[in-house]
Design goal:
Helix content is 23%, strand content 35%. The protein has 366 residues and is of the alpha+beta class. Residues 300-366 form the Mop domain.
């Protein structure tokens, strides 16, 4: 049996039916997204066993463990080797932070988990920067601090699968920006799969390795993050936030102009700023609305980023907007550009044509 998470669920709640068939990677951050009411949280609850899915074809398995087969629960909810972090931190208010962690460690063995030893436990506490919080009660903590404690509690229990249900949705923007770097670190140190429910594309673009898109209880699309974003069901789901996510390498820091160059398979993308602590490998984001296209090489311009591309696909117009999929030279990576239907007609664009993509803004996902 493979090590992937296998989920085949048909589960009806009132007028809503979740009907999914997924084989998900055994490691990395798997983002689950879609409109409100699409079944994101219901899917997580079924995997955790908090929703009792009925049906002879239902199956949930991980590695060599069968968690659910048909209508019978092969492994009880409280024995599944997973940890679940909710939108609210769910810390026990009468216990200190340290006592909350101890309580979770004691319960973890019931889930067939072997909690982390003292050295690894100390590493997680340091990683999530909660050492100074250990003696405090949950009511003394900010929202961001409570979520960091909830993450530490989950990791120290040493589950095989980590479920995160919109862990940042209850936080304001400042607290979100505070906790995102910690989530990135969690993704690096946790060896198993992390199923991360979110409707926030900025979080998904920054954190996810794999993407599952749900709509009305069914899988609209799924696959590696960058390639799934390229398949463009996005006007239905993202609105203005249609984007491309590219993987590149730091190639140059221009101290005279305070710019950093990221090379994506040989194509240069310039970003503002000079962070000397950047790792060599970097993920960047380009919004479709920040790209204009030209059929001839543009003359001098204030737009620094101008990339030669091949027009690979033209998607059908929707409300006067057209999405173009552009292939970078000598690369399997692609950009999405948004133009008006009028521009499409005036430029007489055809698939296979060479275009110059002028990119007004590039963001580093960190």
């Amino acid at each position: 049996m493979d090590a992937n998470i296998r989920v085949r669920i048909k589960h009806t709640l009132g007028h809503f039916t979740l009907d999914v068939d997924l084989s998900l990677p055994a490691s990395g951050i798997i983002a689950i997204t879609g409109p409100s009411g699409s079944g994101k949280t219901t899917l997580l609850r079924c995997i955790a066993g908090l929703e009792q899915a009925q049906g002879d074809d239902n199956c949930i398995s991980f590695a060599d463990q069968i968690w659910l087969k048909g209508s019978k629960q092969s492994i009880k909810t409280e024995q599944r080797p997973l940890a679940y972090v909710f939108q609210e931190s769910s810390l026990l208010p009468h216990l200190t932070v340290a006592e909350n962690i101890d309580y979770a460690v004691k319960r973890s063995r019931r889930r067939n988990c072997e909690p982390l030893g003292a050295q690894a436990r100390a590493h997680i506490i340091k990683l999530l920067d909660i050492t100074a919080l250990l003696a405090q009660s949950p009511e003394q903590l900010s929202g961001g601090e409570r979520q960091r404690v909830a993450l530490a509690r989950a990791l120290i229990a040493n589950p095989q699968v980590l479920l995160l249900d919109e862990p940042l949705s209850a936080l304001d923007m400042e607290r979100k920006q505070e906790i995102l770097p910690y989530l990135e670190e969690v993704g690096k140190v946790f060896s198993g799969p992390i199923l991360y429910v979110s409707h926030a594309m900025d979080e998904i673009a920054r954190l996810a390795d794999h993407l599952v898109i749900l709509q009305a209880g069914r899988v609209l699309d799924e696959g590696p993050l960058a390639s799934t974003l390229m398949r463009v069901h996005k006007p239905i789901i993202w609105g203005d936030d249609v984007m491309s996510v590219l993987q590149g390498q730091v190639a140059l820091r221009d101290e005279d102009f305070y710019l950093t160059r990221i090379d994506v398979d040989g194509s240069p993308f310039w970003l503002r700023g000079l962070d000397k602590n950047l790792a060599t490998e970097q993920r960047i984001q380009v919004l479709a609305r920040d790209i204009s296209v030209a059929v001839a090489e543009p003359g001098p311009s204030s737009i620094v980023n101008c990339i030669v591309c091949e027009l690979e696909s033209i998607f059908p117009p929707e409300r006067g907007e057209v999405l173009l999929r552009l292939r970078l030279p000598r690369s399997e990576q692609r950009l999405l550009a948004s133009i008006t239907a009028k521009s499409l007609q005036q430029l007489a664009l055809i698939e296979g044509q060479t275009l110059w993509a002028q990119i007004k803004s590039v963001a580093l996902l960190k």
